[in-house]
């Protein structure tokens, strides 16, 4: 029986009714024993029931137990009637609840268990004597039992069905699962325990007609063996179930980690993916999806539906404006690429079709296959709605989040054309119910991402992926901008904008080599107080930039004062270090690209690679147009 606080209102009503009926049946049985006493031998059966009842075995995957004491319960029914049997099972259940008090602390839980089993045996035994047409305790008319095989079968069947269904309904309220499916998965094979118990009881009563200790001495060891067999078998099932759950957790953790990596590349928070996952699962359940494989497929696909974006260039993924036609065509490839990537994974549930078709439209105008209506997998139709809604209500680089009402208006506008009308209507109606869980899951995922980005040993792998994606996107944007530069000043400005985002540099200078005077001349400067660098000339081989030009080697983290002398101190804070990259074309020196930072040792080794990429593009642009020069002519002066 589930804990009281986990029950819905309907669950409370159900539990209350079962408890009331069970208490009434037990109370009636106690009164009947007082008014119409039976042989004290029923106490022996009660003791044996308590003894064997303590040998209970937990049923794997659900909060229920079985024992081998049913033989003595059935014997008490046949020998003494419903009243003693009802009292025996009630006392047995009470003792078990005390025995397991650390596991089951709720008094309501214990009372429900007691009431359910007492009600089940009372109704079953009353039905047995009604079908047999004899009064309880009248052995002369009850024997021989072979004349009453059908009533015996009904006794075992009704006790099993009543007991198991009373528990299954309560578990259904607790787990929010379909009762029929839950019962069918967990209870049917335990009917053997009941039919075995009634068979043993029938043999005992047929050959002894009373409580015979010698016969019991033979039966009890058999029941102990039965208990040990049950315990071993169910223990193995529990171990196998635990192993499967561990593998499933590992499997889902691997999937989620992969999804987090995709999100990091796409510059989308993992909170978005987790919210979409909760929305999709809850919406699927509200739409009547009960198949575990289908629910698992939706759960995994919600995490992995954008896997194909690994193959899409970052400048398209993270473009702040509207995509061009060719860019959108390339973006559309991610659905099929993701499905093809995941096809190599042997999913035990249909994930790939959901991933492949989550951008299809109800009207058939989507991609990649252009299928329409119910030909689109249900999971894909669900994802299309919830993914769009959460994207609309989340901040993006190119727009702030929309209000919920605005997002609903857009979703409803696509109802019947972009989206399945039933899914849209169900989602809009159920949003207040499912949103709190989704928002909480998103917040927890965002917090986890922040924690994972903090490490004593440096940036986390996810942080590195995100940083790498950012760098690639920024450099792609720089390539496009520098390609359209008309002057070296424009090209330097594009390079400076790119490097400011990726490094600690604040001042950037392009020194062009002048063969006539064998010196580097500041042709352009970008950054704080760049005017103090106008006209600066450095002789080849002197200072940092001159050394880099003469040796044609990159210089990293040299002291800025070695390159600028007193000019470095005119900045606030003073410039402290440099990074210089020579521009060489077919062994000919073009110039030097030098950047300055206000912190000592500000440049990392990875910054060197970044600078080389940027300078390469800068140099390509200079070479494409040999006449490219600055629109500003600085007066020359040598220092």
Secondary structure elements and pairings:
Elements lengths: L8 H27 L5 H13 L3 E2 L6 E2 L3 H11 L1 H18 L7 H26 L6 H4 L6 H27 L3 H8 L4 H18 L4 H54 L3 H17 L5 H13 L9 H4 L7 H19 L8 H5 L21 H15 L11 H10 L7 H32 L8 H23 L4 H15 L4 E8 L4 E9 L8 E4 L3 H9 L3 E5 L1 H4 L12 E9 L2 E10 L7 H20 L12 E2 L1
Parallel strand pairs: 5-9
Antiparallel strand pairs: 1-2, 3-4, 3-8, 4-5, 6-7, 7-8
Helix pairs in contact: 1-4, 1-5, 1-7, 2-3, 2-4, 3-4, 3-9, 4-5, 5-7, 7-8, 7-9, 10-19, 11-12, 11-16, 11-18, 16-17, 19-20, 19-23, 20-23
Arithmetic mean pLDDT: 79
> Over the alpha carbons, how many angstroms does the gyration radius reach?
39 Å
Q: Report, as a whole number of angstroms, the end-to-end distance.
A: 89 Å
User: Total number of helical segments?
Assistant: 23
Strand order of the largest sheet: 6-7-8-3-4-5-9
Strand content: 5-15%
Largest sheet: 7 strands, mixed
> Which stretches are low in confidence, meaning pLDDT under 50 for 5 or more residues running?
1-5, 447-456, 629-639
Helix content: 55-70%
The computed structural class is alpha+beta
The shape, in one word, is elongated
Number of strands: 9
